[in-house]
Amino acid sequence: MKAIIQAENFASSLVGTLWTPIFVGIFVAIVVYALWPRNKSLFDAAARMPLRED
């Protein structure tokens, strides 16, 4: 039983150690992409899309 608890603790620490920086990196990449000046025209066009009359 003690081995199962130790395995769960190891898995929990592994997830916290590996996945947290990966998800933080993904979040930072998304924010940088959204705020990059070159993408402004693309996002402005997407924002006006619901107001267009086809």
Automatic annotation (TrEMBL):
Keywords tagged on the record: Membrane, Transmembrane, Transmembrane helix
Residue ranges of the TM segments: 18-36
Pfam families referenced in this protein's UniProt entry, alphabetically: FixQ (PF05545)
Protein name (database record): Cbb3-type cytochrome c oxidase subunit 3
